[in-house]
């Protein structure tokens, strides 16, 4: 069984009384409650005219209201288009235009700009949970969906086939506009099956989840994985290190999935020792510094399990659950995934059943994402440290070419972060008459230590990799998953 919907149905059928999830807006619910509430809502969605293959745009907040409508959409056989509620108007307009939804749902009354965008692509069906008293009467007929809607109809639901589209997730878009990646029930299901095997993740687990629910990490793995495996998860509305530590200490969790910035904040709060109570502590979405890996190990007794993946591929590699975890590496290929490095560029290429179906409305980008032999080109460069441990050296498009030499920002950043006193670093290329590009480092940490930091860099890096400039900043710009916004940093150097 390798389809998301089939896996969810199997888990609901096997023991309805088991607790499935907990959210701030609805408390704890059993598998049977989740099944029945999403079935009644799926029937309502079909009553109002949503059918298999339609796209439902969801402005995804971490709540049961959102999960319920998302699962109901999947049960209809429709496609859930998950959008970051913090998108700017430009990004949201792009998401609406490429996804061409039939209907939309958002947590609170939609602002007029959103309604105008949806209207421009002909959407006349939507919903939100709120009083809606300010809505003009002409718009009211549009709002026929609420997350708690129920219907006594008995439509044919749960019929999505493994290769039917399930979700659209937008890539992080740290360099350009986010691209909408279409993933099928098989894409998500096979990835979850691979993680279940690699991490021994199953219905005995209890996951504490505080990630955004519109990305592969929080949604494709955290939410869908728990639902498909019948494993309990508690979804928090936002990340707060003190609350995370308290929950781990007071409740019987076994797992936590996070991004490096969350672990850094846990370490800074002095409460990361709480992680030692968990059997599965996973990090991904951005590189975790070796320094932070070691700090967490000291506090918890074991290295965080770092894995590597992308929206388009789902999870690609993972450090082993039981074998040696090497900080600074992302482990070996997961079951059913093949990984190859391009002989010339070192680019990581991927094959496997979890590879996405394509970018919405962008056939050119879709075909450019694959090489002539069907390998997906990740855009990341890697080196095998040994056959079970891949080391990511950087993004090819962030590669800096200085005086004809190639410099991957990731390598310089790792050396910078190893200097105690530097908590974060981001390295970019700045236009330079002398060098073509010159290496510039943005550093968050102790100001005034410039000479010591440069000495440290010179001891650890060949001369052309040593930044020509260090710029001390109070914070490094990052997106919701903690990925550095390199384009923004490059732009700031032009001004
Ligand atoms: P996204 O599709 O938004 O999830 O971004 C995927 C990108 O995140 C990858 O191509 C990598 O550049 C980066 N990434 C994910 N996991 C890791 C990791 N463990 N270490 C370094 N980079 C990572």
Question: Which labels suit this protein?
Answer:
495 residues; alpha/beta; Rossmann fold; GMP Synthetase, Chain A, domain 3; nine-stranded mixed sheet; eight-stranded mixed sheet; 14 helices; 26 strands; globular; binds adenosine monophosphate
Could you describe the 3D structure shown?
With about 500 residues, this protein is α/β, with parallel strands linked by helices. The model has no long low-confidence stretch (mean pLDDT about 95). It is about 30% helix and about 25% strand. Adenosine monophosphate (AMP) binds near residues 287, 308 and 310.
Summarize model confidence as the mean pLDDT.
Answer: 93
- Annotation, overall tally of beta strands: 26
Distinct helical segment count = 14
- Relevant CATH superfamily of the largest domain: ANL, N-terminal domain
| Overall geometry | globular
Give a short overview.
The protein is 31% helix and 26% strand.
Question: How do the helices and strands line up, and which of them pair or pack?
Answer:
Blueprint lengths: L3 H11 L4 E5 L3 E4 H17 L7 E5 L4 H13 L2 E5 L5 H11 L3 E4 L5 H9 L5 E3 L14 E3 L19 E6 L9 E5 H15 L6 E4 L6 H14 L2 E4 L5 H10 L4 E4 L1 H9 L11 E4 L6 H11 L4 E6 L3 E5 L13 E2 L4 E4 L5 E5 L6 E2 L3 H6 L7 E11 L2 E7 L4 E3 L2 E3 L1 H9 L4 E11 L3 E10 L4 H11 L8 E4 L13 H9 L1
Helix pairs in contact: 1-2, 1-7, 2-3, 4-5, 6-7
The chain binds adenosine monophosphate.
